[in-house]
Amino acid sequence: AMAVLHYYQRPGAESVPVSLLRSAQAVLGGVRALHRELCYNVSWTGASPPSPQETQLLHWLFGCPLQSGDVAAESFLRPAPTDLLMEIGPRLNFSTAFSTNVASVCRAVGLGCVERVERAGLRGACRALPPGEGWEAALEGVLSDRMTEQRYEEPIRSFAVAARPAPTWHVDVLGGGRTALEGASRELGLAFDSWDLDFYTELFTRLGRNPTSVECFDLAQSNSEHSRHWFFKGRLLVDGKEVAESLFGSIMRTQESSNPNNVIKFSDNSSAVQGRAVCSLWPRDPSRPSCFEKRTSTRHVVFTAETHNFPTGVAPFSGAATGAGGRIRDVQCTGRGAHVVAGTAGYSFGNLHIPGESWSPACPPVPGLPPRARPAPQGLPPEGARDAPRRGQPVPGLPRSLAPPRGPLAAGGSVCGDPRSVSGWGTGSLPTSRPGVALPPEVRPPPAGGPQGQRWRLGLRQ
């Protein structure tokens, strides 16, 4: 039967940031220290518990290679009566990228019974006084990201969740017309504008059938401005007069007066400029483990950038991680496959307003700031981008702080303080043997991105 095993790593593997301790002290007086212990929750599908050899291998994977005895089946933390110990980890309704990578490593070393591994953190708060009413909820709000994390009230016994996908339903466009589609847009959060409502109402009326809720969700993504650039490529009116070309057209026209060295421009996941002959190592047989050999071939220079601004402001870690991952994916998907070389990470943000620092005064209430926006210190730097150097990329970066006021706040002005997260200026190399291939119109590209429930929600998480 499937079981969840727990492996605890001795505290000290990852330090607790001083800023987190200060935040806890600001919310709860008397907090003297915070301790963090990692817990690896392993979904084990074997008919029997791991053998001593398998247990030793799991300890080796989860522990420090230079230490022994730093992984155990029980927690190393021993809280005092006045302390509070809570386990906070990722929400269980989806498998994290960390779990996917660890499960792949486990299979590679012969641990085929490992199906899923989620890493949680046991946070121990040392307090001089006994905890009062509401202390746990207040501390949980400081130590966790409510969008992506949850508190485990007890050690995980199963990764199964009670939530079930909502059933698919039909939108009665044939009977209710535009009003029915407008109601579905509100219920599903699709943000259809007037043009979308008219277009899809006419489309399904002409097809003689009603769309499903999944189809409406897919249309909202695939036909969005982000994907199609309806406005960026559309007619442009200035003071009531139509401009000769679109915004996108004016940008593309700059290529007419620049260096004509583009190999790919405005037509792929990345751009590419003319490269040169390079001697590099190639696997003799890419289909299996084999020796490397020297080959000389022309390799073009790939260039791309990715911004993730609003998501980083709401959920710094996952927002920045998605930006870094998107940029890596864009490079790898250029042509018929390119290689990632390097990247950068840039963060622009408002005033930090660090508690206890005289040079960073307290932040006055800012009108118009989204209620879910995270304070600037919690988003700098969004460590989700740390995945880039883990994959062998050199990643230089930059932080910039700027929050100019737009008029006096007392008179209804505002402050520009929303973050800008740039995972970009990513470079790579594209072999000349892998240019893009033109596909006939009848080819149907399959949707990618995981199970259906996850695929439709890409980029639309609230």
TrEMBL record:
Residues 363-380 have a biased composition (Pro residues). The lineage of its organism: Eukaryota, Metazoa, Chordata, Craniata, Vertebrata. Residues 363-462 are annotated as: Disordered. GO terms for biological process: purine nucleotide biosynthetic process. InterPro entries: FGAR-AT_N, PurL_linker, PurM-like_N_sf, PurS-like_sf. This is Phosphoribosylformylglycinamidine synthase. It comes from the Eukaryota. GO terms for cellular component: cytoplasm. Gene3D superfamilies: Phosphoribosylformylglycinamidine synthase, linker domain, PurM-like, N-terminal domain. Residues 78-154 form the Phosphoribosylformylglycinamidine synthase N-terminal domain. GO terms for molecular function: ATP binding; phosphoribosylformylglycinamidine synthase activity. Residues 181-229 form the Phosphoribosylformylglycinamidine synthase linker domain. It comes from Gopherus agassizii (Agassiz's desert tortoise). Keywords: ATP-binding, Ligase, Nucleotide-binding, Purine biosynthesis. The keyword Phosphoprotein does not apply.
